[in-house]
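Changelog-linked ticket: zinc ion example.
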Amino acid sequence: MTDYIVRAISFDNKVRIFAVNATKTVQSAQEKHDLWPVASAALGRTLVVGSMMGAMLKGDEALTIRIKGDGPIGEILVDANAHGEVKGYVGNPHIHFQYPNGKLDVSSAVGKNGEIQVIKDLGMKDFFISSVDLISGELGEDFTYYFSKSEQTPSAVGCGVFVDTDNKILAAGGFIIQLMPGATDEIIDKLEKVIATIKPASQMISEGYSPETIVKEICNDEDFEIISTLPIDYVCRCNKDKFARGLISIGKQELSEILEEVGMIETTCHFCNEKYHFNREELEELISNSR
Ligand code: ZN
């Protein structure tokens, strides 16, 4: 079965909830980048949250999340859109940190100092850019802070990835709970109790919970309504033309030097590791099209 997100409302329409199973999506990222477990957890959590933030967009809107911490994983970058397509990469996929109890230490990989930056492409050259400082580097808490601070939407974010001993992804998923205007103290109290006791998202997914069941768990005995369901997947739409346009933009002089010295260019897509080769003839054509 494919990965998907559900969007639900509950608590008299005063609370909106997103929940996602992203196990296959994070597995694709693991395979494309040969992620070691803590890198799978860090990129996976960002892909989980990114996919749900993508589901909050409309039409052809898209967003980019950049997490720039001072840890050895380097930059974490995730692109997502309203069609359920998500992709990403990390600076260094081959790092390893775990707590003495065996749990993956995402915070040491990401770093505790730095920022989360979100760039939303709302179309027609309209961009929304905002950033907040990292709080813990564990990412769930950091995204919770991002929503409250940057989007003025009190939220609770849960995200997690379970990695097997052979680096395969056993479970990845999460939820975002958001208070809508008019949410009462009574609702907030109920949700705080749920958030304090709910199982970690990755545990729920590994126990076989569907996104709908996660919503049910969050709503406890409250009624809820599933508003929409969105399939998600790891998708990179790169192609040779896009890379050619990028190369043209580096300019005639630099391209001519490469032609002279190397005679070809090989580029690699950061998101999917697809390689694009430009031979001498193609390089000459790029030069004739550049300034
Ligand atoms: Zn690609």
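Closing comment: Example verified and attached. DSSP finds ten helices and twelve strands in the chain. The chain has two domains: 4-234, 240-289.
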